Amino acid sequence: MSHVKMKVNGRDVSASVEGRTLLSSYLRDLLGMTGTHVGCDTSQCGACVVLVNGQAIKSCTAFAADLDGAEVTTVEGMANPDGSLGRIQQAFQDYHGLQCGFCTPGMVMSTAALLAENPKPTEEEVRHYLEGNICRCTGYQNIVRAVMAASGQDAGALAAE
Amino acid sequence: MHNFEFVKPSTLADAVAALGDGEAQPLSGGQTLIPSMKARLNAPGLLVSLTGIAELKGVCREGDMLVIGAATTHATVAADAAADFPGLAALAGQIGDHAVRNRGTVGGSLANNNPSACYPAAALGTGATIVTNAREIAADDYFQGMFTTALEEGEIITSIRFPIPQKAAYAKFLQPAPRFALTVVVVAQYASGVRVAVTGASEGGVFRWAEAEAALSAKFDADAIAGLSHSSDGMISDLHGTPEYRAHLVRVMTQRAVRAAL
Q1: A22, A65, A132 member nearest B97 (Cβ)
Q2: Of A44, A65, A110, the CB nearest to B6
């Protein structure tokens, strides 16, 4: 066992981990932060995406011990300080960018990473960036609409329709 | 997955020493190793993380070489190689998805030598040099078949030296579910001639297509290989494609790569 410290959503946290403890398990099982979802656990679905030092990674495919000292942002960190929905979350609600909602934490975090590096993505860029985030309800049209709206762009018409 | 001890050295020397343990394996970005450990295909007693070693990271031009630290992520290569070697940057920017590219590394890909990975084609197609803690290995000697390389136990790739070509491009035929390549071709033109490397097609892993290299060295044009066909002997057969289909893809993707390079 080793002691791993991180800063999660601006809060200093620490927990004892085994070598095999994944970041997803560190967040969910040790810190009780269940906003991060584990879908496939095989690095294919993207539901578990979080930001580590500002970069989106799959939390099911990184060891907590390898990320000692990291700054992590999860979906719980995407709300406004008063607890209301943040800009990206609000856009997902406004444009019905979720159906069952299981993939949504990963979608929101990938969107946050995309808009941080490309504040006004084209629809094609949104679709390319989100190709590692799978929605088994297949609600992609509204997800892309939500991302366009979150970036302050027209979410009305999508080229692929 | 089975539990293991974990260490994260900050120097190459400490990593080499830690790997002296017979149960130890190196961990780079983990985008292949961690899923394989979950599936219990791999169960190291000790994992030695290479992600905390600053000297293994970064993209740097040295004359006509682009030198990339082995623990550099695909995302960093995509961004930092774009000015000096846009074909390599484009290849790195199409691996997996954005979250995988933020963790996966060039050294990890080359050490694993997955038959469908992109970097082996880049290394063999450019005649790169694989630099380890012990020696330098030419790409032509490095790849020794599917998941097999010239690396010895405990040997760590430290950097890869890519000769910058006059023109180069890659063409990838995507297998959309795992976002691995059904076939990838890298074509690179140098003063000394053209190199063509293919992954995803052969049961022997990455290979050079000598016939196409000769034709393209004589005339660097997609039409120069229009009449060539690659043998289907030894090509991978699975539910995604027959050997004949893959052999056909080799020529088609080589032509697309040449057109993209021009």
Answers
A1: A132
A2: A65
Contact by Cβ (8 Å): B251, B229: yes
Taking only residues 44 to 73 of chain A, the set having a beta carbon closer than 8 angstroms to any beta carbon of chain B reads: 44, 46, 49, 52, 55-58, 61-63, 65-66, 68
And the tokens for B12?
């190459």
Q: What fold does the segment set A87-150 form as a domain?
A: DNA polymerase; domain 1 (1.10.150)
Among A83, A81, A131, which Cα is nearest to A106's?
A: A131
Q: Which CATH code fits A2-76?
A: 3.10.20.30
Q: Options 3.30.465.10, 3.40.50.720, 3.40.50.1820, 1.10.3430.10; which CATH number does B54-163 get?
A: 3.30.465.10
Number of H helices, E strands in chain A: 5, 5
Residue matched to tokens 């020529």:
B251
User: How many other C-beta atoms are found inside a 10 Å radius of the C-beta of residue B79?
Assistant: 16
Phi/psi at B83 (5° precision): -70, -45
Tens digits of pLDDT across chain B (262 residues): 999 999 999 999 999 999 998 899 999 999 999 999 999 999 999 999 999 999 999 999 999 999 999 999 999 999 999 999 999 999 999 999 999 999 999 999 999 999 889 999 999 999 999 999 999 999 999 999 999 999 999 999 999 999 999 999 999 998 877 667 899 999 999 999 999 999 999 999 999 999 999 999 999 999 999 999 999 999 999 988 999 999 999 999 999 999 999 9
Say which residues have a Cβ less than 8 Å from residue B142's Cβ, sequence separation at least 6.
B110, B123, B130, B149, B150
Bridge-based pairing of strands B46-49 and B59-62 is: unpaired
Closest chain A C-alpha to B137 CA, distance in angstroms = 29
Which burial class, exposed, middle or buried, applies to A71 when counting CB atoms under 10 A from its CB (0-12, 13-18, 19+)?
middle
- Give the ipTM of the model, two decimals please: 0.95
How would you list the strands of the sheet with B46-49, edge to edge? B5-7, B46-49, B24-27
